[in-house]
């Protein structure tokens, strides 16, 4: 299931196999005190926060965190005050209880001695997306998916953004590069655009930044592509230039795909040049393997552009891409969840070139099935297995193996601490199998079993949208569910981060549902609008969330 995750790179988690399962962390014993750091020196009072963010949101160690990382415990503004006081950057981990790859990251990378040692030079902060006020903070930091690691200075400027799915040895080294230069990441891009050669640390920081985890609008993709292409040219040949080139190519292709009407034509000169550079990277097996995590950001828009540029060369590019993914799927530098993710990337690339697009070579599907069976049979850790299951389900759904995906998701419900996650997975598969009543029932179970305000709204939206798709005539149930799901927003800082986009999507789908019934559901829309207004009046008019809330089903009469 791909809740809240943008590119495939965000779906994968890096790390080595831990020596033992992670144990609960005692925050009182390990966390840096917020009132008297370093032998009793008092912290300066936290400055008044004029951002409208909740100053009282408390950060804490995750319950399943491995021992070793001294996660800060206290208010989030106090964590930044401590960072300023001690001249240390903040290392913020954004995660969620249900997120499979968060568990993989915690159980692998966070348990590595080199990573633990490096975190002592930071103020390490864990922010769960369901903590009170967390979504507003996540919105300020531009977080779009779990897991995300952010390096920020004491004034909350972003120094570095890291995702998952890397060579496990890279995390500590990349944090080193951030410590060497604490300029905001956006300050480095103009240097490259000016034609200035970048230092090794500057190149490393740019090359391993999680550009695919940014909260960019499609109209900004082209500008980002140009910036990353300039940065690549400002760095010497090697892995850093290769990573930057691949990300530039990905954004360039996405920009032109978003701007195209219908079938796209030939790529622009910039996109064509980047396609050729990616082809050159893929022709160097060792460089291509090291660049594999970045290469997974290349999607159908890139392969379409490559075909439009030169069909014969595109086939050669595809074959080298597949060969790279095959090597990465066997490379010990990546954990098994990552390896399965590379198999899924290969399948997506093949589908971009296959006609009809749903047909895949039998041998490819059989090999993927064997890898899935081997991985799931060998791993039963509650911290590592969820990432494997998630990656397996992605492969099976992308290869249209819904019956097998159904069996795997159903089996995980009984063993999971967050069964609602797999109930939603199972509902997605059941719908594709044509079992609509079962799918709706599973979505309802998942919603009512979900924990945490942000999670409950996210799962509630999925349930309500499922009703609109699969049971559009069940007006009473849709109305009841709509009122209940909107109620999840009745609290401080609830309409933030991804909630406004979900609310806007629900608005469009409810209006379409009413239009399809020739306006016979207008009374339902009016009641849902009235419920939203009961929530809106509690939001200060100066906050952006108020306008979002007021707009929901406005004028539906």
What's the mean pLDDT score? 87
Q: Major beta sheet, specifics? A: 4 strands, mixed
Helix segment tally: 27
What strand order characterises the main sheet?
A: 4-3-5-6
**Binned strand content:** under 5%
Q: What distance lies between the first and last C-alpha atoms, to the nearest angstrom?
A: 36 Å
What's the count of strands? 6
Helicity level, as a percent range? 55-70%
Radius of gyration: 24 Å
Low-confidence stretches: 2-51
- Which geometry do the CA atoms define? globular
Secondary structure class reads mainly alpha
Summarize the structure.
This protein is 57% helix and 5% strand. The protein is built from 27 helices and 6 strands. The protein has a 4-stranded mixed β-sheet, with helices on both faces.
Question: Could you walk me through the main structural features you see in this protein, from its secondary elements to its overall organization?
Answer:
- The protein is mostly helical.
- It contains 27 helices and six strands.
- The chain has a four-stranded mixed β-sheet, sandwiched between helices. Strands 1-2 form a two-stranded antiparallel sheet.
- A hairpin with a 5-residue loop joins strand 5 (148-152) and strand 6.
- The model is unreliable at 2-51 (pLDDT under 50).
């Amino acid at each position: 299931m791909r809740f809240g995750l943008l590119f495939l790179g965000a779906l994968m988690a890096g790390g080595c196999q831990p020596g033992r399962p992670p144990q609960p962390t005692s925050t009182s014993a390990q966390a840096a005190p917020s009132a008297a750091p370093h032998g009793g020196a008092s912290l300066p009072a936290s400055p008044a926060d004029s951002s409208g963010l909740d100053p009282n949101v408390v950060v804490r160690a995750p319950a399943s965190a491995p021992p070793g990382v001294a996660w800060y415990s206290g208010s989030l503004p106090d964590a930044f005050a401590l960072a300023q006081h001690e001249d240390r950057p903040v290392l913020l981990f954004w995660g969620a209880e249900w997120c499979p790859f968060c568990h993989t990251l915690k159980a692998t990378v966070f348990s590595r001695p080199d990573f633990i040692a490096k975190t002592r030079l930071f103020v390490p902060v864990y922010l769960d997306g369901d903590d009170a006020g967390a979504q507003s903070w996540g919105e300020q930091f531009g977080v779009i998916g779990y897991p995300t690691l952010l390096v920020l200075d004491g004034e909350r400027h972003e120094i570095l953004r890291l995702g998952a799915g890397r060579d496990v040895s890279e995390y500590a080294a990349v944090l080193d590069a951030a410590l060497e230069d604490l300029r905001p990441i956006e300050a480095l891009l103009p240097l490259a655009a000016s034609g200035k050669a970048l230092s090794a640390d500057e190149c490393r920081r740019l090359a391993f930044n999680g550009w695919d985890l940014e909260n960019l609008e499609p109209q900004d993709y082209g500008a980002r592509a140009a910036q990353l292409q300039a940065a690549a040219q400002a760095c010497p040949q090697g892995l850093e230039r290769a990573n930057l080139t691949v990300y530039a190519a990905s954004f360039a292709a996405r920009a032109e795909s978003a701007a195209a009407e219908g079938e796209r034509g030939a790529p622009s000169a910039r996109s064509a040049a980047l396609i050729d550079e990616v082809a050159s990277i893929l022709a160097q097996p060792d460089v291509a393997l090291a660049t594999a995590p970045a290469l997974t950001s290349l999607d159908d828009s890139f392969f379409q552009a490559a075909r439009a540029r030169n069909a014969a060369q595109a086939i050669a590019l595809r074959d080298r891409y597949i060969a790279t993914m095959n090597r990465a799927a066997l490379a010990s530098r990546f954990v098994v969840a990552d390896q399965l993710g590379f198999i899924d990337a290969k399948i997506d690339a093949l589908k971009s070139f296959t006609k009809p697009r749903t047909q895949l070579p039998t041998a490819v599907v059989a090999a993927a099935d064997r890898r899935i069976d081997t991985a799931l049979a060998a791993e039963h850790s509650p911290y590592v297995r969820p990432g494997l299951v998630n990656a397996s389900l992605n492969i099976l759904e992308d290869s249209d193996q819904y019956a097998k995906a159904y069996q795997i998701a159903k089996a995980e419900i009984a063993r999971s601490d967050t069964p609602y996650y797999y109930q939603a997975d199972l509902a997605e598969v059941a719908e594709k199998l044509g079992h609509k009543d079962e799918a709706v029932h599973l979505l309802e179970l998942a919603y009512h079993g979900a924990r945490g305000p942000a999670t409950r709204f996210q799962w509630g939206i999925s349930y309500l949208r499922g009703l609109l798709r699969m049971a559009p005539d069940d007006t009473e149930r849709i109305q009841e569910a709509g009122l209940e799901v909107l109620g999840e927003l009745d609290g401080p800082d609830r309409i933030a981060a991804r909630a406004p986009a979900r609310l806007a999507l629900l608005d469009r789908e409810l209006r379409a549902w009413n239009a399809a019934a020739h306006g016979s559901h207008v009374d339902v829309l009016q009641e849902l609008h009235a419920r939203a207004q009961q929530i809106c009046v509690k939001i200060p008019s100066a906050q952006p969330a108020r306008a979002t809330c007021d707009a929901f089903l406005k004028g539906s009469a």
